[in-house]
Amino acid sequence: TFQIFVHDIARLIPLLQAGGDGMFSAFNHLYGETFHTLIQLVKSGAREEVGLLYDANVKKLRQIDSEDPSIIKAVLNHLGYRVGGVRRPRQSLSPKKRDALVKKLVR
User: What is the C-alpha separation between 87 and 52, in angstroms, rounded?
Assistant: First the structure.
């Protein structure tokens, strides 16, 4: 079989509506259940629920850089998943940036 996935959150819903299969992204480590539910809702045609879920959870993710492993690792470590720090040349987030990020993404 042939499957089509997208990496950009902004293209996820249009891809799914066109028959695509999902998204690969570091955000899936943080919001796997949310993305799974979103995909199932789109595939079932539940447009209103898709809009509500998207507005409540996904728009905030577009505000940060999912390509930066220090961001994903900071949140995962905060959530109790001991994934360690980032490798050189990357640097871990400062405590101030980490706390602001966690406040924004984790409720």
Answer: 37
Residue range 46-65, pLDDT digits in tens: 999 998 988 887 767 776 66
Model's pTM, two decimal places? 0.72
Q: How far is CA 65 from the centre of its chain?
A: 10
Rounded-to-integer distance, Cα 70 and Cα 85, Å: 7
Q: Which residues contact 35 (CB under 8 A, 6 or more apart)?
A: 12, 22, 23, 27, 28
Closest CA to 61 of 94, 26, 89, 95: 26
The two three-digit tokens of residue 16, written as one number: 């799914």
Per the prediction, the chain carries an average pLDDT of: 85
